[in-house]
Write a structure and sequence with these properties.
alpha+beta; 5-stranded mixed sheet; 14 strands; elongated
């Protein structure tokens, strides 16, 4: 009887040790699971700068009110664009009056800095207000902006922002080609010629 009792005790000890080992192994495996899933996307970041080329004016002042960009999600599985989900995003911009001629020879100003979802970003739109002017021969003149300004001036742009990627985009506002003087009235009119560039890729648009 003592032998049987001893065998039963040893069996129970081994059984308990096996169960405890199994529990420990299961707990460790659960700790390794990423409940966020392998396809969780990280926020990306975009900085947008404004610059200009030299022009034959004393000042070209523009009234910046907003900046928009078109966003379309990209499938992480197929890397294709889902055009049904595209939308316009208003980038954060503090309204400002900028003398474009202060932004020449490599100088620029930061228009917007934003955290964005990964995906395709195509076309920017620069929105101007009514307080635009040009200074010529020490005289300041109103710079008339055509009626389409409220929807923004289109700037061709195309990039795919990857998970966690940080990029810098520069908008080159060519003042020399954008300011025109009307023949009879002598009024100055703004028809923006804009170029957006990022990592060596650039496109040009005219307003």
């Amino acid at each position: 009887m003592k032998t049987e009792h001893m065998h039963s005790t040893v069996y129970n000890i081994l059984k308990s040790a096996f169960i405890l080992s199994l529990i420990a192994l299961t707990t460790a495996s659960c700790n390794d699971v990423n409940f966020n899933g392998p396809n969780r996307k990280e926020q990306s970041h975009m900085n947008v700068h404004l610059t200009d080329a030299p022009a034959n004016y004393q000042e070209v002042n523009i009234d910046v009110q907003g900046l928009r960009i078109h966003y379309t999600p990209v499938s992480s599985d197929t890397a294709t664009v889902d055009t049904t989900e595209g939308k316009w995003i208003d980038l954060p911009v503090d309204p400002m009056k900028v003398n474009l001629l202060d932004l020449t020879n490599g100088v620029d100003t930061l228009l917007s800095s934003a955290d964005l979802n990964p995906g395709r970003y195509s076309e920017l739109r620069l929105i101007l207000g009514d307080n635009n002017s040009v200074k010529v021969n020490d005289m300041t003149h109103d710079l008339k902006v055509p009626s389409g300004q409220h929807s923004g001036y289109k700037i061709k742009f195309n990039t795919v922002l990857q998970d966690g990627e940080n990029i810098d985009v520069t908008i080159d506002f060519n003042a020399s080609k954008s300011v025109h003087q009307a023949g009879k009235s002598g009024k100055y009119i703004l028809r923006p010629v804009l170029k957006a560039s990022e990592q060596g890729n650039d496109t040009t648009s005219t307003g």
